[in-house]
Amino acid sequence: MGPRCVNGVADGSEIAKQFAQHFAIVCTNNCNCRAAKLKSNYMQMRTGYCGRPDDARYCFDVELVESVIFNLKEHLRFSHCLLSCVLSKLYNFCVTIGLCASLFWSILHCPCS
Predict the structure, then answer these.
(1) DSSP assignment, residue 9?
(2) Would you call 56 exposed, middle or buried from its count of C-beta atoms within 10 A (0-12, 13-18, 19+)?
(3) Where are the domains of the chain?
(4) What is the pLDDT of the chain when averaged over all its residues?
(5) What residues contact 3, with CB distance under 8 A and at least 6 apart?
(6) Residue-wise pLDDT tens digits, 81-109
(7) Three-class DSSP category at 7
(8) In this structure, what is the dihedral angle of CA atoms 45, 50, 52, 55, given to the nearest 10 degrees?
(9) Distance (Å, whole) CA 110 – CA 67
(10) End-to-end CA distance of the chain, in Å?
(11) In the chain, how many H helices and how many E strands?
(12) How much of the chain exceeds pLDDT 70, in percent?
C-alpha cells in the first residue's frame, strides 16, 4: 500500500489539522438568526417529547406472556409451550425498533377476553 496523502499532504497531524479547518468552515451556520430559529423550534418540540423507554421494566418476559396466555379463553391457552417465548421475543423486538404502539397492537393483538 502506498503512502496516504490528502491534498498532497502525507503528515498525519497536518491532515488532521486540515480536516479540522475544513469542517470548522463547513459546519458553521450561514445565518445566526436562522440558527436561533431552528434551535428554538427544536427546543419547543423537545418539551413534549417522551422517548421510548430503554429499561428492563418495560420488557415482555416469558412469564408475563405465559400469564396472559393462561388467562385467555381462546385457543392460544392450549398452544405449544414455546409460543410464549416466541411472542415475548417478537414483542420486545417491536418495542426495540420503535414500532408505534397503535400499530404494534393492531398487528400483534392477542384477545384477552
Answers:
(1) B
(2) exposed
(3) 12-47, 56-108
(4) 78
(5) 10
(6) 899 999 999 888 877 776 666 665 565 55
(7) coil
(8) 140
(9) 13
(10) 68
(11) 5, 0
(12) 77
Q: Which residues contact 62 (CB under 8 A, 6 or more apart)?
A: 84, 85, 88
**What does the alpha-carbon distance between residue 41 and residue 97 come to, in Å, rounded to a whole number?**
26
Compute the distance between CA of residue 110 and CA of residue 69 in angstroms, rounded to an integer: 8
Q: Report phi then psi at 9, rounded to 5.
A: -110, 130
Q: Are 72 and 32 in contact (CB under 8 A)?
A: no
Q: What pTM was estimated for this model as a whole?
A: 0.43
Between CA 43 and CA 24 the distance in angstroms is 24
Q: 111, exposed or middle or buried, with CB in 10 Å at 0-12, 13-18, 19+? A: exposed
What separation in angstroms does the CA of 24 have from each of 3, 32, 37?
26, 15, 21
